[in-house]
Amino acid sequence: MVPSTNTRPLPINHPRVASPYLAKRAVPLINLQDCAKTLGEFSSQPKSRQGEKFRLLDLANDGSSMSCQMKIALSGFLILLAVVLVFVRVATVSTETGPQLLGPENWPVTVEETVRDLLPRISPLLKLRLMFMKKEDLISLHLGFGTWIRNRYGLWRGNNKLILSACGFQCHPEDASMKIIEAVWQAEHS
Q: What gap in Å lies between CA 38 and CA 36, rounded to an integer?
């Protein structure tokens, strides 16, 4: 068993030592079993209103118990941070598998062509969101997904044929992108 505050140099043949330089350095080790034992002893003491104040003072004065609390808190924080980072990575709408912007020679000119180009490019998470989203809630996709559509398919750069196909008349590019989003939603629901 490793002591909870080990500052001894590790032996040169220890598996965690990569070089003699590291073997000479003090490596503090975290042993959460000792922390759990210390905190377990603290929590198993009899509970009384008067004794509670003294136990809290004893815990605050005991360096090892305080460091155990810090170790547990830090471990919990790191786990929470890892979960948040994984969630952010998964939840990020990734809609790019090809070049960011299409040139005028590659612009689709109908909504149907645009939907055929979009469906394999949108992430499974966005597809799932579309499947469970009501048509009235599609406006929530206006900023992220809609901006990507407007940029990729040249709605701001003069793709008037696609705008005409989307709206039936010359409309604002943001209105045209919403019509395309509605068509993608319809394709996901059919």
A: 5
pLDDT reading at 3 higher than 70: no
Asked if residue 170 and residue 108 are part of one domain, the reply reads yes
**Same domain? 115 vs 62:** no
Burial pattern 153-174, b for ≥16 Cβ within 10 A else e, equals bbbeeebeebbebbbeeeeebe
Provide the pLDDT for residue 16: 55
Identify the bridge partners of residue 9 per DSSP, sorted by sequence position. Answer: 26
Model pTM?
0.51
Q: Is residue 44 in some structural domain?
A: yes
CA distance 130 to 138: 8
Whether residue 42 is contained in a domain is answered as yes
Q: Which domain holds residue 1?
A: 1-30
Element (H, E) at 138: none
Residue-wise pLDDT for 9-68, tens only, equals 655 555 554 555 544 444 444 555 555 555 555 555 555 554 444 444 444 444 555 577
Q: Identify which of 130, 121, 114 has the alpha carbon closest to the alpha carbon of residue 177.
A: 114
* Cβ atoms within 10 Å, residue 187: 14
